[in-house]
Every structure is written in C-alpha cells, then in structure tokens.
C-alpha cells in the first residue's frame, strides 16, 4: 500500500549543524497489517513516520501511496490526503484543552463538511466503542492519561482513514494502560485497518498484534 524508495531527510541542510535523520530508507508497508518501526531515540523512526503520513517531505527519494507518487504533490493535495487517508495518534496526544472529548473527536472532520448530526453521531459511537461514552462532555484536561489516549484514537478514526499512524503510543502509559492500547489495536487490526506505529516498548513490539517489526538505527534499517 505504501512504498518508500531511497528516502533521505536532512535538517538544517547547508548549515554548520546539518543533520541527516534518514539515510536511504527503502521499504514497503502492507495494507491491513500492523507494522512497528522500532529503534532507539534518534534512529529516525518518527521522521520516517511523518514523511509517510505527509506531515513532512523527504529531502530526496520517493513515497508512493497505492501506486501514486505523492512526494512532489503541492501542499493542498497533501492536506487532502492527510485528512482522508491517515489518522494520527501523537505521542503527547495534542488534544485541544478547553474543549470536550466529543468536540476534540469531531474537530478533524469539520473541513470535510457534511451533515453535523451524522458527524456527532459518528463521534459519539467511536467514544462509546472505546468505553468513553460517559465522558464525552468532559473537558480533555480533566481526563486521565488512558482516557486522553482513547479520545486521541477516536479523533484519529473519525474520518474513517485507511491508515492509522501512532507515534510512541505507549510512551506515557503504565503497563496496564499499555495493555489496554494493545487490545484496542487488536480490534482495529481485526477491522482491516492498516496500522503503522513507532515504539521501543517491548510490550508493543513483541505483541502478537504486530505483524512486522522494522528495526532502525542511525537513519537506516538494520
């Protein structure tokens, strides 16, 4: 579904502090599978995740989505791809304080238009499926870490994306909450979602839910 060809990514290119986060990455991500990028801090896994998810552009190399080269597309097209193809769960969740759980879940769908009542019903259904129906009107800063993560997952799924991207999803969770996340991940995999995540948590990368682990170090696959 996703193909990466000789992708390299530089930060501060041409300056004294030039840094190459990726050094010639080539790989294929299978559809309807759970793939984990594993490696220590600084290995390049989060940078690769952002490039695959159209949040950043490679310095060189190509990224293809379902056979289409998306590397050189204008930003307005990449924005459309992000909204309809990818759902994101960030390490810090990036929820909007002051808004309810329900409002946070609905937020990514507003630019797509559509019926507001249908959107609200879909968001409520997602929160119900994640055991948060009773907390939908609570402000997100009042929620526990595990509850905030479930809100972030519901938000990522509200536009029914083909691919769920999660960056270090258990980094701020204890063992019990990490196991809850894996149970949710198993359910999503059973629905046929393509899931791409980063992690150096053995609980995640050694889980039976993960179909493939790609090990990275120093911007390369090892």
Q: How is this fold's topology laid out?
A:
Elements lengths: L1 E10 L7 E11 L4 E5 L6 H8 L7 E6 L2 E2 L5 H11 E4 L11 H6 L9 H14 L15 H13 L5 E5 L7 H16 L3 E6 L2 H4 L6 E6 L2 E2 L1
Parallel strand pairs: 3-8, 3-9, 6-7, 7-8
Antiparallel strand pairs: 1-2, 1-4, 4-5, 9-10
Description:
The structure is a single chain. It contains seven helices and ten strands. It has 222 residues and is an alpha/beta fold. It has a single domain (2-221), classed as Rossmann fold, CATH 3.40.50.
**What is the CATH C level class, in words?**
Alpha Beta
Any low-confidence stretches, pLDDT <50, length ≥5? none
Number of domains: 1
**Structure summary, number of beta strands:** 10
Strand/helix succession: EEEHEEHEHHHEHEHEE
- Biggest β-sheet description: 6 strands, mixed
- Order the strands across the largest sheet as they lie in space: 6-7-8-3-9-10
| Share of helical residues | 25-40%
> What integer is the average pLDDT?
91
Annotation keywords:
7 helices; six-stranded mixed beta sheet; 32% helix; four-stranded antiparallel beta sheet
Sum this structure up briefly.
By secondary structure, the chain is α/β, with parallel strands linked by helices. It has one domain: Rossmann fold (3-Layer(aba) Sandwich), CATH 3.40.50.
């Amino acid at each position: 579904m996703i193909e990466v060809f000789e992708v390299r990514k530089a930060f501060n290119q041409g300056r004294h502090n030039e840094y190459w986060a990726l050094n010639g990455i080539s790989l294929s991500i299978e559809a309807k599978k759970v793939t984990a990028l594993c490696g220590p801090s600084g290995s390049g896994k989060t940078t690769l995740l952002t490039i695959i998810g159209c949040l950043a552009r490679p310095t060189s190399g190509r990224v293809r989505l379902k056979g289409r080269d998306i590397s050189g597309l204008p930003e307005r097209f990449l924005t459309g791809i992000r909204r309809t193809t990818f759902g994101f769960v960030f390490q810090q969740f990036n929820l909007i304080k002051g808004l309810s759980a329900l409002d946070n879940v609905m937020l990514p769908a507003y630019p797509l238009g559509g019926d507001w009542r249908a959107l609200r019903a879909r968001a409520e259904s997602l929160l119900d499926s994640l055991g948060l129906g009773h907390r939908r009107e609570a402000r997100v800063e009042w929620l526990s870490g595990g509850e905030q993560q479930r809100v972030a997952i519901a938000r990522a799924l509200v536009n029914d994306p083909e691919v769920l991207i999660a960056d270090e999803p258990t980094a701020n969770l204890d063992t019990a909450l990490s196991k809850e996340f894996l149970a949710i991940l198993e359910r999503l995999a059973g629905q046929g979602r393509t899931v791409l995540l980063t992690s150096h948590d053995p609980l995640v990368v050694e889980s039976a839910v993960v179909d493939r682990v790609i090990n990275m170090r120093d911007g390369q696959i090892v």
